[in-house]
Amino acid sequence: MESFLTFEEQTDLLMKDRGMVADRDNLIRHLQDVGYYRLSGY
Fold first, then answer.
1. How far apart are CA 2 and CA 17, in angstroms?
2. What radius of gyration do the chain's Cα atoms show?
3. pTM of the complete model beyond 0.85
4. Cα 16 from Cα 11, distance rounded (Å)
5. 16 with 27: CB under 8 angstroms?
6. What is the pLDDT of residue 20?
7. What dihedral angle (degrees, nearest 10) is formed by the CA atoms of 15, 16, 21, 23?
């Protein structure tokens, strides 16, 4: 069973592992508004 990632962990995943360049605090707020899957382009 997979555990859920916090917004901070999602931000780390997008920025470090997926190469997204963004302001960390702004990205966290955006994740809270639209969600991870809308940003990641799965």
1. 18
2. 10
3. no
4. 8
5. no
6. 87
7. 60
Q: Output phi, psi for 39, to 5 deg.
A: -85, -35
Query: Could you tell me if 27 and 2 are in contact, meaning their C-beta atoms sit under 8 angstroms apart?
Result: no
Contact criterion met (CB below 8 Å) for 40 and 15: no
SS3 4: coil
HSE (CB half, 13 Å, CA atoms) of 26?
4
Digit-by-digit pLDDT tens for the chain (42 residues) are 578 899 999 999 889 888 888 899 999 998 898 887 776 654
